[in-house]
TrEMBL record:
Keywords: Ligase, Magnesium. Transmembrane segments: none annotated. Gene3D superfamilies: Glutamine synthetase, N-terminal domain, Glutamine synthetase/guanido kinase, catalytic domain. The lineage of its organism: Bacteria, Pseudomonadati, Pseudomonadota, Alphaproteobacteria, Rhodobacterales. It comes from the Bacteria. Residues 117-451 form the GS catalytic domain. Belongs to the glutamine synthetase family. This is Glutamine synthetase. Its cofactor is Mg(2+). InterPro entries: Gln_synt_N_sf, Gln_synth/guanido_kin_cat_dom, Gln_synth_cat_dom, Gln_synth_gly_rich_site.
Length: 451
């Protein structure tokens, strides 16, 4: 093996075996979490130490348009991409031997670009480290398998199962429902194993063709990398079996939305002990302060957790989605849930993020709000008892309101980084403006001849 292949993780080396690597994909995640970069022959990759892409990719909207540059003239200077070999993993769906490597985005002076989403998350993790803490997260991924949707003017339909019937909703935790598309699940497992990605469990969710995939807890950046990789491999597994996988927050009317619940705890860097648990396992002030930070700042953080106009269709009562910032123990109707656990495993589950959010930014926003709570030492409101499907004005109802709340939260912006917040605001306001220029079928049906 050459020197660069010696740097690869064990799973990547196992995937290669005694074969020759044909291609390497040099990738980074943009504001939307889309993998962007370039592919090159492995022989060329082996001779280069860095690669170049224009920094304008962080100003590209989900539709491919360009948002306004909030800093200076739109000159599109190159940024330097340096491979993070710890992320190297297989692309097992390709015909040849291909590796993917996530790269660090730096400016031409070697400084990490502050508005690259992965760098935003690293910034937050570093803030915890400065206080002697390590954040631990465990994401849950929900997504839908759907029939191929070739015409975007047509509604999304559930996929056809092995029985010849379309997948049915309201079958949460049904093993037979998962078996309906077992071949897709098998490929997800196979791809994940080839990539060295760990799956904690897969289950049927409440929607038609809706699946939940749980990841084991660990380092925030590594888990965000895993979600980033999982989204791509799940789509590839679905395409092999003539269906789509979608991570839209609300792809099918009348069905539940898809969330990316984030479980979070914080441990002392020296002792490794959970700071949410005190002597004899008692809940600590830090535990309450963390929840307080989420309550006080997640209203503004929704802009990152619900990044598209479709995201806000998920926040409706009685569809297994939170509609407020209340907290409760083992209460799935609250936005902030404290699951049943041992004292050492005590954690807070943020149920607000949609699966459409960029995993780096969804985790960053959660940790940033919790960090502010730990620093500000503000206690949360009393625990909510009973059903929390109640009216609340804490969660914004659309993208514009969410961006306004983020702009008003100076403390959260300071933690996330002012430069990032400017870029994010520019991209998202551009997308929102584009959406408002589209006339929907509802408007044509009810307004065209009636008003």
């Amino acid at each position: 093996m050459s020197k660069w292949t010696d740097k690869l993780p064990e799973a990547a080396r196992d995937f290669i075996g005694d074969r020759r690597v044909d291609e390497v994909e040099c990738i980074i995640g943009d504001i939307a979490g889309v993998a962007r970069g370039k592919a090159m022959p492995a022989a060329k990759f082996a001779t280069q130490k860095s690669y170049f892409l224009p920094n304008s990719i962080f100003l590209q909207t989900i539709t491919g348009e360009w948002a306004d540059n909030p800093f200076d003239a739109f000159t599109e200077p190159d940024m330097i991409l340096e491979p993070d070999f710890t992320t190297a993993t297989a692309a097992p769906w390709t015909a040849d031997v291909t590796l993917q490597v996530i790269h660090d985005a730096k400016d031409q002076n070697g400084v990490l670009i502050p508005y690259a989403p992965r760098n935003v998350l690293r910034r937050i993790v570093d803030l915890y480290a400065e206080q002697g803490w390590q954040a631990v997260v465990a994401p849950e991924m929900e997504f839908f398998l759907t029939a191929r949707n070739i015409d975007p003017n047509m509604p999304v339909m559930p996929p056809m199962g092995r029985s010849g019937r379309r997948a049915a909703g309201k079958q949460a935790y049904s093993m037979s429902a998962v078996d309906e598309y077992g071949k897709v699940i098998d490929d997800i497992y196979d791809f994940a194993e080839a990539q060295g990605l760990e799956i904690d469990g897969i289950l049927q969710e409440g929607g038609a063709g809706q699946i939940e995939l749980n990841l084991a807890h660990g380092d925030p950046v590594r888990l965000a990398d895993d979600v980033f990789f999982f989204k791509r491999l799940i789509r590839e597994a679905a395409l092999r079996h003539d269906c789509f996988a979608t991570f839209m927050a609300k792809p099918i009317a009348g069905e539940p939305g898809s969330a990316m619940h984030i479980h979070t705890s914080v441990v002392d860097s020296k002792s490794g002990k959970n700071i949410f648990a005190g002597p004899k396992g008692a809940e600590t002030e830090a535990f309450l302060h963390f929840i307080g930070g989420l309550q006080n700042h997640l209203g503004a953080g929704i802009a990152l957790l619900a990044p598209y106009v479709n995201s806000y269709r998920r926040y409706v009562p009685d569809f297994a989605a939170p509609i407020n910032l209340e907290w409760g123990r083992d209460n799935r109707t609250t936005g902030l849930r404290v699951p049943i656990s041992t004292a050492a495993g005590r954690r807070v589950e943020n149920r607000l993020p949609g699966m459409d959010c960029n995993p780096y930014l969804g985790i960053a926003a959660t940790l940033a709000c919790g960090y502010l709570g730990l620093m500000e030492k503000r206690n949360p409101r009393p625990e909510f008892i009973g059903s929390a499907y109640i009216d609340s004005d804490e969660i914004p109802v659309n993208m514009g309101d969410a961006l306004d709340l983020l702009d008003e939260d100076a403390a959260l912006k300071a933690v996330l980084g002012d430069g990032f917040c400017k870029v994010y605001d520019s991209v998202k306001r551009n997308e929102y403006k584009e959406f408002l220029q589209v006339i929907s079928p509802w408007e044509r049906e009810h307004l065209l001849l009636n008003v």
